[in-house]
Amino acid sequence: MTVVAPRLSVERRLLRDHALVIACDEVGRGALAGPVAVGAAVADAALSRRRVPEGLRDSKLIVESRRASVAARVREWVPASAVGWASAAEVDSVGIIRALGLAAVRAIDGLREFGVEIDDALVILDGNHDYITPIAPIGRGVMPIIKADRDCASASAASVIAKVARDELMMSLHEEHPAYRWAQNKGYASAEHRAAISAHGLSIHHRASWSIAAAPTLF
C-alpha cells in the first residue's frame, strides 16, 4: 500500500486568516502504564513555503528505528515545538480525556518559552473531539481534524515529536522497572506486559483505575 506524505495544504489555507497555526497530537492514550503526551508544533507563513522533511509521516507509520532521526529533522524544520505531559496518576484522578486536555495545554504553554504568541494562533487537533477548550480557551480556538496526523504536515510533526519523547521516557522508566519490559512495549498491553502485571502487580506508573486485567493485547 502506498503511503501518501502529509502536506501543508490545510495549514496554508488557515494561515490566510490566522497569524499562526499550532498542530497538536497525542500519544500514549491507550497505554496501560506511563503518561499521556501531546506534541505541539507551530506552523507560520515561512514554514508554509518550506519543503516537508523527508520521511515525515504520522508517527505510527514510521518504523521505530527511523523515528528519532525524523523527529530531529522535524524539530529543526518547525519554528517551535513542545511536548506536554499528564501522568498516570492524573489519568486515574481526572480520566483520560481531561488528562489529554491537561497535556495539550501544557504543551501549548511550553511554546511560550520560544516567544510564540499563543493568542494569535489557531490550534488544529488530530481527531474529532476538542479536549483542549474545556481545560482552557486557547488563542483563536481549536479545530479538530480527523486524520490530521496523516494529512497535515504540522500535525505529523507534532505526532512524531511526541512519540519519540514518550518512547524515550518509557525506556528510561524500564531501567527502574525492568520486569514490565517497557523498553519494548512502551507501556502498551503486550502479552509480556500483562504477564508481568499478573506476576508483580502494578507499579506507580500504571493507570490503576483502568481494567488492566481485561485490556486487549495490542502487541
UniProtKB/TrEMBL annotation:
**Could you tell me which InterPro entries the record lists for this protein?**
RNase_HII, RNase_HII/HIII, RNase_HII/HIII_dom, RNaseH-like_sf, RNaseH_sf
Q: Can you name one GO molecular function term for this protein? A: RNA-DNA hybrid ribonuclease activity
Q: What class of enzyme is it?
A: hydrolase
Q: Which GO terms describe its biological process?
A: DNA replication, removal of RNA primer; mismatch repair
UniProt binding sites for a divalent metal cation: D25, E26, D126
Cellular component annotations (GO), alphabetically ordered: cytoplasm; ribonuclease H2 complex
Q: Which cofactor does it need?
A: Mn(2+); Mg(2+)
Q: Where does this protein chiefly localize? A: cytoplasm
Q: Where in the cell is it found?
A: Cytoplasm
Query: What's the EC number here?
Result: 3.1.26.4
Kindly state which keywords UniProt assigns to this record, in alphabetical order: Cytoplasm, Endonuclease, Hydrolase, Manganese, Metal-binding, Nuclease
Q: How is the cofactor bound?
A: Manganese or magnesium. Binds 1 divalent metal ion per monomer in the absence of substrate. May bind a second metal ion after substrate binding.
Q: What are the residue boundaries of the RNase H type-2 domain, all occurrences included?
A: 19-219
- Please list the reactions this protein catalyses: Endonucleolytic cleavage to 5'-phosphomonoester
Which parts pass through the membrane?
Answer: none
Extract the PROSITE patterns matched here: RNASE_H_2
Q: What does this protein do?
A: Endonuclease that specifically degrades the RNA of RNA-DNA hybrids.
Instruction: Please give the family membership noted in the entry.
Output: Belongs to the RNase HII family.
User: What's this protein's name?
Assistant: Ribonuclease
